[in-house]
Each structure stands twice: as C-alpha cells, then as structure tokens.
Amino acid sequence: MWLTGGAALSQQGGPAVYVASQEAGTVARVDPGASAAGPALFVGPGPAGLAAGPDGTLYLTHPDHGTVTAVEARTGRVLRRLRVRGQPFGIAVSPDGTELFVGDWQAGTVSRLAAESGLVEAIVGIGREPAALVLDRAGRLFVAERGSDAVGVLDARTLTRRASVPVGWAPFALALSPAQDRLYVANVRSNDLTVIDTSSLKPLATVPSGRSPYGVAASPDGRLLLVSNQESGSVSVLDAGDLTLRERIGVGRYPEGIAVAGAHAYVANWFSADVSVIDLATLRETARLPVAEGPRAIVAIPAEMPP
Asked: Which helix (H) or strand (E) holds 186?
C-alpha cells in the first residue's frame, strides 16, 4: 500500500539530509545534531535512486517497479507516482524543477520527463548500466556508465551526446566540486577515484580509494573529497588539491550513499541499517543513527523551503 499522507518528514528551518531505505521501501530525514533519524515514510517497494528538486520535492526511483515517486519533504506527503519505462535507476532534476532526467539501467538510455506528468520529452541511448546522473549549471548532464567504464556527457536541453570520458572499472557514483570545475567518479571495481576536468572533459588523475567505492561527495569549501567504500566499511577522505589521503574513517557495514550538509557528512550503511555522521573538522564519526533496513541513497537539502 502506498502512503499518500502522514507524519511530516521535515521540520521548519535548517539544512536536512534524507535517506532512502531500499529494503524497507521508506525515506527518512536526519537533521544536523539530531540524536535519531526522523519517522520513516513508506514510499513503495525498492527505492534506489534519490534526488531533490529546488522546491524540496524528493524524487525516488524504483527500478524493479518502473516507477518514480515524488514526495513533498516538508509535509511527508506522497504527491504522485510516475510510470517509467524499463528500470529507472539514476535520477537528476532540472534547476527549475520542471524536468526529470532518468537513466534506464536495463536499456542503457536516459530520458527527460515532465516532472508533473511523467510525459517523456526526449530519450537517448547511452552506455551500458547508467548509474548516477549529475546536472551542472552549464546544462550538461553527466552519466556514470557502469557497464561501459565511461562517463557520458549529454546536452540536457537537446539530450544529445557531447562526449564520452573513459574512467576506471565500473563507475557508479558522481559528484561535482562546488566550483563545478571538477567531476569526481567513484569506480567500484577498480577501487579508485577518477578526477575529470569539466572544461576539457579529460581525466586529470585516478587515485586509489578503499575497496568498492560506492559514493562520493565534496565538502562545501571544496577542500575535501569523501568516498564511501562498501567492502572496507570506511570513508576515505582525500585532499582535493593534491589528492592525498587525509584520513580513513570507519563507519557502518557496507556504506553506500554519502552526502554533505553543513559541517557534517552523512553515510548510508546498508548492512548495519544506520547512518554514520562524520564531523568534517575533526574527521571523526560522531554518531551512528538507526534507520530502516537497506539504507542506500542519500541526499542533502541545504535549507528548508518555504511552505
């Protein structure tokens, strides 16, 4: 049964982090400084991808059910369910919130959809197993092509392919630097991180991470890179300038998604069903907050949107 109303996910004010638990079919909020996660909202079976629109609407993909769910974070209300072809996995939202970009894991395509109706506006073939999708301010959509060992670069307006950038083995997660001059790519099977110059669209460097890097995020000041390592049960913290290892932080079991809000990073730990909170000043885990089973995707919203 789908919940169409219920306990609010959010409270007024401040940044917030939302975590989707794939096995439980829920999404929950974590507030900075909180001693526990907020109430879990049932959004339907198997949410895998998660993105936030400019108004705070959360969009979750359900690859095994051909669905995208839209949730109003402020009220905890499920707004709508959009039927999507194939296996929708990675997702991104346009800056004005009117369009969604959805990768079909099975078919190797990316679609642009109307966010309200789900109408397909355009579709393009991409590399195999499109995972993370990231949209920059220049209107380029970056796609981690896990099965093709490359990052595809699309023009978001025309949905045409502009470039293909070779990276490591099985790229899965992407993150832009705050200045958007660098794209960071976590390569799951080669256990490393590729750095791409977004101006030239050329790889600048590839550096080791832990085993099975599955998530990547940059600190707000752009000085640190954080990579979650599934099989290592850790987060690697790299200096963004020289790409040297600053710290390796133990977290929960099988860490996947990672997001940064304010002075902390938040890590979704799949097997231990919790979220690790990392202080970016001390580079230490300061809390581990239980959530529903199978936390996977995680996203930060900088500040609460007006009602």
From this structure: strand 182-187
Token couple for 169: 């083995």
Residue pLDDT, tens place only, 214-260? 999 999 999 999 999 999 999 999 999 999 999 999 999 999 999 99
Contacts of 39 (CB under 8 A, 6+ apart): 7, 9, 28, 76
| Model confidence at 1: pLDDT above 50 | no
Taking CA atoms, 44 is separated from 6, 64, 250, 274, 278, in Å, by 14, 11, 31, 20, 29
pTM over 0.90: yes
Q: Which two tokens stand for residue 270?
A: 């799949």
Domains delineated in the chain: 81-301 (2.130.10.10)
Distance between CA atoms of 158 and 124, rounded to whole angstroms? 10
Summarised one tens digit per residue, pLDDT across range 4-27 is 334 445 544 568 999 999 999 999
Residue 81 neighbours by CB under 8 Å, 6+ apart: 2, 44, 67, 68, 69, 70
Distance CA 161, CA 125 (A): 9
Asked if residue 142 lies in contact with residue 133, where contact means CB atoms within 8 angstroms, the answer is yes
Residue with tokens 């500040």: 303
